[in-house]
Design a protein that fits this description.
The chain is mainly alpha-helical and about 350 residues long. It is about 55% helix and about 10% strand. The relative contact order is 0.15.
Length: about 350
């Protein structure tokens, strides 16, 4: 099959979107996760640059995996276009538009699995860079300069008697167990779960399991984000990478597997609200409908590739990636910041 040439305009758009997304990831990490100003403070600028570089390396590896393998199988697709986003991690990933369909099940499976496998390998590399510098705290450590303001905030909250719609929504989420109950002596804190990959690398590099309160180095945190995105992409739904693999492996049952998987993801909202968000996004984008290819026999190589992708999924998946918990003020270790 003749390959459609890449135009200069498409290449400029691809590079421009990549650089714009890199900047978005840099700023979001600096202001949201690092808690500083990456445009004026050198420490936060350095951390933001490391995170943005590592995360974009993971995402670029993922998309190039798809692109290169698709080209090797002879079907045409666009360059990857990265999507900046001003919240969460600074990006919604990237999109590649198919210009011709895979000709058989082997091509569909290997194209679908190549992205997660390549991104997973890149995530391992970034984790190996950052894990030796990760601080494995046994308890919550916060700057002593924040103690007074947090105590004042708790006092204000305990004296409040608002009954707005937001308060009623919060109470409802507490009632169903999605948020912890508020306390006059505790502050809400976001806790990140650790995929099996990071747990294992934590033991290897630090000599002990990662604590829930570990302060991940920016490169290791990029690995965490990469694992989250890899796991979500590998769910066997429609046009997700896992959906492509599922349609190649089980063409007669893939639609039913996808519907069941979407229902399970939706019910996952009781563990993490993010699952509901992803389910809604997939439904609205029409990504629940998979690609149909001519039926053919699967090669041994394709089956091995599927098995490797399944291992990457298992090592990356987290049932409850993010959890909000209450930490009592007496359990916090207050650290004096160096001048």
């Amino acid at each position: 099959m003749d390959q459609e040439p890449v135009t200069d305009r498409a290449l400029r758009r691809c590079v421009g979107m990549f650089l714009l997304t890199l900047l978005s990831v840099y700023l979001v990490y600096g202001y949201q996760w690092s808690g500083g100003d990456p445009l004026s403070d050198w420490k936060h600028a350095k951390e933001s640059f490391i995170f943005a570089s590592c995360l974009m390396f993971i995402l670029l590896s993922h998309e190039l995996g798809h692109y290169i393998v698709a080209k090797r199988h002879g079907f045409s697709l666009s360059l990857p276009y990265f999507l900046p986003f001003p919240f969460a991690f600074g990006t919604l990933g990237a999109v590649i538009r198919l210009k011709s369909m895979p000709s058989n099940r082997n091509a569909l499976l290997e194209m679908g699995a190549a992205g997660p496998i390549a991104g997973f390998v890149a995530a391992i590399i970034t984790a190996c860079i950052g894990m030796p510098f990760t601080e494995n705290h046994k308890s919550i450590e916060l700057p002593a300069s924040q103690k007074e303001s947090l105590e004042q905030l708790l006092l204000t909250e305990s004296q409040g008697s608002s009954s707005s719609i937001w308060d009623m929504l919060f109470d409802s989420l507490v009632w169903v167990g999605l948020l912890p109950e508020m306390s006059s002596t505790a502050i809400p804190l976001t806790i990140l779960a650790d995929p099996i990959l990071l747990q294992g690398l934590g033991i290897f590099f630090l000599g002990e399991p990662l604590s829930p309160y570990a302060n991940l180095h920016p490169a290791a945190f990029a690995c965490w984000v990469g694992c989250l995105l890899t796991a979500i992409n590998m769910i066997p739904i429609g046009q997700l990478d896992g959906g492509h693999i599922c349609h190649a492996l089980f063409p007669n049952h893939a639609k039913m597997i996808g519907k069941i998987s979407l229902a399970v993801v939706t019910m996952g909202m009781f563990l993490w609200l993010g699952w509901l968000v992803w389910a809604i996004m997939l439904f609205l984008m029409g990504a629940t409908h998979g690609l149909q290819v001519p039926k053919s026999d699967l090669s041994s190589r394709a089956k091995i590739v599927a098995f490797i992708a399944l291992i990457a999924f298992g090592l990356s998946f987290m049932f409850r990636p993010v959890q909000l918990v209450n930490i009592d003020m007496s359990d916090i270790q207050w650290i004096e910041e160096s001048k």
